[in-house]
Amino acid sequence: MANDSKTWRCGKYELSFDRPRIMGVLNVTPDSFSDGGEHFDPDAAIEYGLAMLDAGADIIDVGGESTRPGFTPVNPDEEARRVLPVVRALAKEGAIVSIDTRHVAVAKAAVRCGASIVNDVTGFTDPKMVEFVKTSTCGVIVMHAGEVAAPARTHATVQLDTSAAAFVAEKAREAAAEAAREAEKPARRRRGKLLGEPKPEAKLPGGVVQPSLPFGEPEPTSEPASEQETPAAEQAAAAETVAPAPEAAPEATEAASESNDRLAAMMRRSARREEAYVPTSQLRRFTLPDSAPIMRRVMGFLSDQARTLIHAGVSRDRICIDPGPGFGKSANEDIVIQRETAKMASLGYPLMCAVSRKRFVGAVSGVTEAAERDAATFGVCLGAIQAGANIVRVHDAAGFAQFLNGYWAVAKPQPRRAFVAVGSNLGHRCDNIRAAREMIAEIPLTCVSNSSKIYESEPAYETRQDAFANAVIEIKTELAPLVLLDELMKIEAELGRDRSKKAKANGPRTIDLDLLWMDGETHGGKKLRLPHPLIGERDFVLVPLEDLMHDPARFFRYNGVEVKEPEGRVGHIVGELGRM
After folding, report:
1. SS3 state at 267
2. Contact 444, 561 (CB under 8 A)
3. Distance (Å, rounded) from C-alpha 270 to C-alpha 290?
4. What is the tens place of the pLDDT at every residue in 478-526?
5. 289, 336 contact by CB (below 8 A)
6. At 397, which helix (H) or strand (E)?
């Protein structure tokens, strides 16, 4: 895992996996299973998303429809109203934003607002969604949602009492079960087809076959018809009373599709199956079901859908896969799937572990409340990372970032190259820069590998101040970017940098340390942006970098940074002040 060669292209971003990536969950919903309503207000959601970025999240997954067991489908208009302001604000801060939706209209609007990833809970079984993503450059997450095993057959109970009375009672139970099955057959027909019969497969342009979702028609329930019709009625009412979101495409006004109803029914069946599970007198020879049929269903679906996307024109390096824990699966089945993480990783696509606070995590840890399952979640995620998972989707991004940083520091030696810009225009400028260099060399798991000469430059942004002394220091570090930034801020404070509100943002300072770039890292948020968003316009950074690398302008352009020509830059170099 320490040197995983997979990469994931998501729009203008490219994620490498020399280190696991953290996807923070941001539910802009009133009814999510563990945090429903906490971030339903757009301003609260934006603030929380930025906080997750500043705590260590690499990606923010924004969702406007809960898909917990027993959920009510949300009209695409309402979903778009919930998520689009949040997506736009986070993308503006440089965040890699994922839109968690199964509605193509919402996906289109979110990508227009800056989302870089489409996370489709139905695994891109909608040809319209496939048609959309093939025309974009966003990353895609193919998730398996559906039952992974055929309906259980009725097996004879192991009979330990060989008396005649017990034998007669057993035969009576078998006869009653057979009669019930016979009586159920007529009710299990729909439109002339038996339950579970595959639907005709849709064809995409070029003759590519679109597989059906991995779950069949909804089972008949004993619920009153009025209750079953409630979601549709609520959607119709919402569509009549609320104006469409301006960003949403015309397709957003369409009613929920048949696949939405199938998904809701499948999640209801999953909840009933979990709640109804109790130990019985039937003996099992093994603690878990056989993994072979389960993994054939899961890996077969993920592979088929990935190939469908590739044949439609989506490049392979844009595709990530997710086995969909909790979606139509029992606790036993989820454990089987997690234990086979290495097999799923062998498919060659970036692999997501999205187990956060799921029901099976509570089952194995004994924790009833979903919001209290974070510690158990971290344990399951660690097992997945060790087996090859590349991305972990968690609710507690700050806690998991601490957990991962601690584990990675001792388990995965991984020095990475980084550049730190150093500037001063108060006191003994060159001495301040040299002192900062010595203190950087004392940061844990960090060493200084090279330094530029010290240059004098014109002040930038705030021109009414003394000229600056500037240099760039090349380091190798095993710290996470945000941890390294905290160490640099401590050095600034120790050398007398005033970062209080009364100090001018670009005014005089004894020392200024900026983390410019780190190998393999892209980050957004208020606290840290990587690569540094202003590196391409600063002459006092680009010129010292020429001492450390060949053609830094070309290097940063290759890394997606817009680099201005010398005449268009700020803080021009006017002379040399000596060596470090």
Report:
1. helix
2. no
3. 19
4. 999 999 999 999 999 999 999 888 888 889 999 999 999 999 999 999 9
5. yes
6. helix 397-411
